[in-house]
Write a sequence for this structure.
């Protein structure tokens, strides 16, 4: 069965790529209301595609937010393993548009890479598993396990709809393992299994100064400038050594163990590549931790956006009426994202000068995650990756957030296998996002092997 | 002659207003390249209008920037006084558009006020003098003095073109007094003569962090965020007492004399009205000075605009590639705007963290101004204002900047009479800019009286 699936996949390389192009052309940006019709188009496209590859059920299901696409093939029977495969069909906004070398929603292959918004995050990666399942159903007539797909449309805006859906549909989603590909591997030769994800608390701070923009000549000198007030507060959220100054912020952070720091230090990470990927002259972060620890195993606070007053060409001499910042914090076990939102809110309110009025809102939150590296499904995934890449996976922590993973863990009680096929230089959330095409094809093979290994857990 | 002119002006009230509406409909925004054709349209409209009211010469003259409109009537002869009248036909950008109660370029009268961008700053005020001159030429057949108009199109972006023009055309512009209306009076009952203006140094700071926006999950914690770096620097430009911390900033500031502080304290300024005009819960400024001193007689530093990263609806989890701020400083005698630009640049460069790259540019500069309150032209203006308003003018300092006034003083060696008809609540540079219509008509009468008083200086 495994070999028939692998042969089918090999014969369909061009067709698989053409289909992925069609999927990437849909600008399913979940954070912008104007793209709501594109989100719905992407969901319908996926359900149609699931039916075409032979799933026995495929539907677009409403949630409190964007729809979930659910599909299943359960004919391996109740005694077989059931794998729930998760992905997200929504993408980040493409701005700034002028920095893309080819348009974000017109996929283009250059060298070995496929360029498009969503190529790696996460349309290309979720498509891997659809193609692996197709390869079994069309190449061998059946699958070695039961399969359920759950593909959401608002991962980039907090997975609110799916969170509620998972809680409400625990029975339908019951599985023995959960498979997620939405993360990178260190290099094209080195597969990885992720065992930790950072959580997120995303805040928005709006400062109101005067009730309208004021002439800075007529009023300048006697009005607290809201941009100045906001900068003053934001500047005080970290100290000179990069420590976050919010009281209580670090209280629940689990210290890194010596053994784990050693394993992280052995990963193929080089500062030279970090500087090349980012274009910064030097790294800068929390004192006492390596760069890799800073970006995966320590909590952070970043300003994601900032706006006040006149930002167009030329000049305008005003005291702005308002200033606003988007600020997000990445969290590590065992920080509680709601508690962090409260600590941030209290601290910012305390620092804000009394001559302005501030509104502090929580935009969304996600729990951090830790996964048992020795669960049978994790070991099956390790065998599958080694079969395809010729090397055993390294175990990594990821700085990013997949909000729903914590919910799967808590609600479904099954191990979550985080088997990603992205690369560190994929330009996620940035212009010129790409997906390394050899990883697309190897990912399909690895998914075929994983399903076979999971099937063998019961029969073998 | 004076009475004939006054009678003519009285008979033409409706026609004058209709003409002003036509002028205000032209969106002559000088700071935005897209409005260049509107600037040129406004200039041609003014030259045509000058010919229609009887000036013997009227032309649109090119400068290094936007054109100057020059007009003259010199038939009072070489022995008579010559008054050079200045105004600017460009306006500020109208943003934010959604806060206007009527569209900015569709003038509307509500109660006693005319609402439109440029109504007070400065189209409505320069139009006063065109109507005074028309009243003499059409009502009496001649003027008691020679008159020259010089109307510029880039006051709101630094008067660069006019500055060069005045230097190059000193002979043509020679005058015994210069008349400017581009400032407010304290109330509709209380006329004013301005004797001091603040100068300006307008800077733009751009901070480059990574060379593209980065995923804040994958890189957050080890990259110096340019928005954070910029906020950190901006937050350190003032201390907790509102003093500007740039070394050397105050070195050339002329201290306020006790007599002047007493005169300022007698002006009809109330904090209650200040709070009402601005909508702030409390004033805030440099410790040791009254609000009126802070906004007119002390130098300031204000953030005019701030932008970084994602500022649209929803959220985006990035470390921005860049952050930028527009920062302007109002200056008082004897601060040198170019020197202040240098001190600002050095200080900001010194504060900027080494993990980001900053560009610091001077956008424009203007000298502060002081005028002799006892010059004959100032005394003629005082008599004209008292004749119309029934009260002698108060002598005020203005927090705003009219960049060209310093150049007139230096290049033409004539006293500059700053006789303004705006009001403190005109919403200059803000939504719902207005001009108090009774001031428009009284301004015309005052201008007629001033020209008569100036004529009487030689003959009387």
């Amino acid at each position: 069965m495994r070999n028939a699936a692998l042969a089918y996949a090999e014969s369909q390389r061009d067709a698989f790529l053409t289909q992925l192009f069609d999927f990437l052309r849909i600008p399913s940006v979940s954070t912008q209301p104007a793209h709501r019709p594109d989100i719905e188009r992407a969901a319908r496209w996926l359900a149609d595609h699931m039916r075409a590859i032979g799933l026995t059920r495929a539907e677009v299901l409403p949630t409190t937010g964007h729809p979930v696409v659910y599909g299943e093939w359960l004919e391996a029977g109740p005694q077989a393993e059931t794998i729930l495969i998760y992905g997200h069909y929504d993408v980040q906004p493409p701005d700034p548009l002028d920095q893309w070398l080819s348009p974000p929603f017109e996929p283009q292959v250059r060298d070995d890479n496929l360029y498009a918004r969503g190529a790696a995050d996460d349309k290309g990666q979720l498509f891997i598993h659809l193609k692996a399942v197709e390869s079994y159903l069309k190449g061998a007539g059946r699958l070695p396990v039961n399969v359920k797909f759950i593909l959401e449309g608002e991962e980039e805006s907090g997975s609110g709809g799916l969170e509620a859906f998972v809680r409400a549909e625990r029975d339908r989603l019951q599985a023995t393992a959960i498979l997620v590909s939405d993360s990178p591997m260190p290099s094209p030769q080195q597969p990885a299994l992720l065992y930790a994800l950072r959580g997120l608390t995303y805040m928005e701070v709006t400062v109101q100064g005067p009730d309208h923009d004021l002439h800075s000549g007529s009023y300048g000198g006697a009005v607290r400038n809201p941009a100045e007030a906001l900068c003053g507060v934001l500047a005080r959220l970290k100290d000179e050594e990069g420590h976050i100054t919010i009281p209580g912020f670090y209280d629940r952070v689990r210290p890194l163990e010596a053994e784990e720091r050693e394993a992280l230090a052995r990963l193929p990470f080089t500062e030279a590549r970090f500087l090349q990927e980012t274009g910064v002259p030097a790294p800068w972060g929390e004192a006492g931790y390596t760069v890799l620890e800073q970006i995966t195993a320590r909590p952070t606070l970043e300003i994601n956006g900032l706006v006040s007053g006149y930002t167009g060409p030329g000049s305008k001499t005003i005291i702005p009426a308002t200033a606003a910042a988007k600020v997000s914090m990445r969290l590590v076990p065992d920080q509680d994202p709601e508690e962090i939102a409260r600590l941030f809110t209290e601290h910012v309110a305390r620092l804000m000068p009394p001559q302005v009025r501030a509104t502090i809102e929580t935009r969304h939150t996600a729990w951090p995650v830790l996964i048992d590296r020795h669960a049978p499904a994790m070991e099956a995934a390790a065998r599958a990756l080694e079969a395809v890449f010729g090397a055993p996976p390294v175990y990594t922590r990821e700085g990013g957030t997949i909000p729903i993973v914590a919910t799967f863990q808590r609600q479904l009680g099954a191990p979550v296998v985080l088997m990603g096929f992205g690369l560190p230089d994929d330009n996620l959330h940035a212009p010129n996002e790409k997906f390394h095409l050899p990883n697309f094809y190897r990912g399909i093979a690895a998914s075929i092997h994983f399903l076979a290994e999971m099937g063998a857990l019961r029969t073998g």
Notes: Chain B has two domains: 2-197+368-459, 199-253+299-366. Residues 437-459 of chain B form the longest helix (23 residues). DSSP finds 15 helices and 18 strands in chain B.
